[in-house]
Design a protein that fits this description.
CATH architecture of the largest domain: 3-Layer(bba) Sandwich
Radius of gyration: 23 Å
Distance between the termini: 38 Å
Shape: globular
Helix content: 10-25%
Number of helices: 15
Number of domains: 4
Strand content: 15-25%
CATH superfamily of the largest domain: FAD/NAD(P)-binding domain
Amino acid sequence: MGSDGAEREALAYDVVVVGGGPAGLATALHLVQQGGGAPPSVCVLEKGAAIGAHLLSGAVVDPLGLDELLPDWRQRAAPVGVPAGPEAFRYLTGRRAWTLPTPPQMDSHGHYVGSLGELGQWLAQVAEAAGVEIYPGFPAAEVLYDERGAVCGVATPDQGRQADGSPGPAFEPGVEIRARQTVLAEGAHGSLTQAVIRRFDLRREAQPQTYGLGLKELWEVPPERHEPGRVEHTVGWPLDTFTYGGGFLYHLDERRVAVGLVVGLDYENPYLSPFEELQRLKTHPAIRPLLEGGRRVGYGARLLPEGGWQSLPRLSFPGGVLVGDAAGFVNVPRIKGIHTALKSGMLAAEAVQAALAEGRGEADDLGQRVEQGWLRTELYPVRNIRPAFRWGLLPGLAYAAAETYLLRGRAPWTLGHEPDCRQLRPAARSRPIAYPEPDGRLTFDRLSSLLLAGTSHEEGQPCHLVLLDPEIPTRVNWAVYGGPETRYCPAAVYSYEPDAQGRQRLRIEAINCLHCKACEIKDPAQNIRWEVPQGGDGPGYQGM
């Protein structure tokens, strides 16, 4: 029953998976793949209007996870893209590009350059053919608990509520999906994931999770400049030496090139705008010639968990498990997380299957399965590389080289993290950044970019970006930090305008939201709560 007394429809499954990305789909598919009797009933809930609508990655795909999940994926013609070919790693200054040796972690030999959205759509088709029920446009907005306090499923949001929260004329109560096990595969910083982590104190032995904001544009370039499979990574300009991040250029098929920038959300300068930094990156003499005369066809943004091995929470809780980016399974030095997401989903499926068979309420051996497999072998040795960059770019590169070639991941220490929201300096102690006006050919503004993201939200519903205290933006964010949400948001959701008394008040255009959740993480006062909007709302990425 809903909070206003409306009767909810209830469905029952053995397992409900929240999130239709690679981790969630791998979990669902592997659950029905395993032998040993009748497969469990499994459904996948996806908040996007279609599978792939909210998926975005570079993406260079390590096929290791696919090899284990679907060994015949090549015969099935999985859309992984084109084989990775020539690669380069370059340090940029304002006018020059210096080629550096490619770090071994970034070696793309045997990998593929493609679209995560297209791969997700294909995995969903395979999973449905195997017996998994998939429901796009059905976000999970609430965790359900049984009388013992264990998770027993999720509920979708009510549809048709008005802006004041009251039921509208077309009001429909949400649906309860009851399950013996609930798999949270929401991606980075999922709202239900955060609620469960708090309720069961899953981070009590882990470092805080930290994040990067990845921005990507998809371009069609002239055929003579296109090199299918080419992979380039950059560090340095346009970011300052104490802001972690880097650029990428991936040549896909059909004259498509993905150009993007990842910015660590532990940056200090409140005047920094990740979106504007991406626009500046494209003007570099080493990058501009590739894109000039081309056509931009896609834009999007998403979070990447960057905390590494030491930021993984406990993976199981009474009634469910965490997988993929929801837990933090990303190899940051490799800039890869698709193969680790797939593997984490497979291990979760095996742990959940064993718990169902044995009548256990918690798949509490999932952490042990991760410890004993190649996820630990890959993630543990590189755990210190990302946090070392808090000392600056050059010291970070030097430490990464020492870890790679001398310590080989065997350092007797583990570096820690601080939450990203604590890193901003006050505006009075920071240097403003003068970003050039967009030219509409190579560089663009955020509003025109949103047209390529296909994002939409039904008007009239309650705002899904909730201010816990509506006075804090004026009193803290604007007064102390100069309104940083107007710059770190990649979707032009936030702006300030004076009220009748001349005080700057925060304006929220939630209709623009790309669901990246950077605001909930970077807000210095932790005053923004991201809630799930109505089903099917948000970006509508194509080929991203």
